[in-house]
Fold this protein.
Amino acid sequence: MASQASSAKAEPTLAEKVRFLSTPGSYPHAPDGVDVVETHMSWVFLAGDRVFKLKKPVRYPFLDLRGLDRRAANVRAETRLNRRLAPEVYLGALALRQTAEGALTLGGTGRVVDWLVEMRRLPLEETLKARIEDGRVSHEDIARVAETLVAFFAGLPGEDISGETVITHYEQEHETTAAVLCDPQFALDPGTVDAALRGFEAAFARARPILRERVAAGRFIEGHGDLRPQHVFLIDPLTIIDCLEFSHMLRTIDPFEEIVFLGLECAQLGAGWIFPALRDRLAAGLGDSPPPALLAFYWRYRALLRARFALLHLAEPVVRTPGKWRPLAQDYIALSQEADLRTRPPEDR
């Protein structure tokens, strides 16, 4: 009996939680099936018209989710922050419980053993990424994106942060990026990498005084932080999900860096016309036209950062789609060298 009681109270493992949440019968709304997606920091369960996200108990230099209280706080932060641009999607935090008998449940009583983000499921075919890939994105679509972002950015106060803090952040991130790009295990061409890094450093030197001026003018806000085409849903109302919830510093950003990043990702997908359209509409809507040198810096910074993240997939214990990451990193490095052309107004070319 003592052994049975001890077993009933044992902390469920992550594998047991994933197995439970992968089963349609675990959900009160009884979906027909459950599709399971693993990411770096979460397990995502697509269950009928709902999506449930379970945070992994992981630790990174920028994030520690090993404790239940930390995962609970992260779930609350993700819900709160994403409701700014997706108020109808993020339904709230849902407790995963364990009964006295040791069974997992999403309803009823029992001790809380984890927390889930509960969301409405959105049509993936209506993301900006899908529409670009299918050739279905229009100038009217991009106008809607820009209008949404202008309203969002205009409603946010300037963050209380110093120019030196911002510059130090970019320096530290780029130091890490350079180390990854130069790592021999990833077998990138040294000449290509050196040219890209020298291009970035020259752009950074030009951008430093501009960055200080923009921080002092209150241009840095608590934005989205991870504005990619797969996070933009061209539905009604237009919806943007998956903001960078785990780091206030990474969300403290110039709105024009946000749209440079979105424009870069669209260009990588073959839609280079989207960035200038966003830039011009944002400039008009916010009454703000940062110099091309700053936009070129943001472009180079984000492109090399994306190359770094692509390569780091190859350093994981289990590499998914191993043939994808080095070519993708090389693509971003090449895009970084197009920064001046991509961000300069037509009259300056």
Summary: Residues 1-8 have pLDDT under 50 and may be disordered. The radius of gyration is 22 Å.
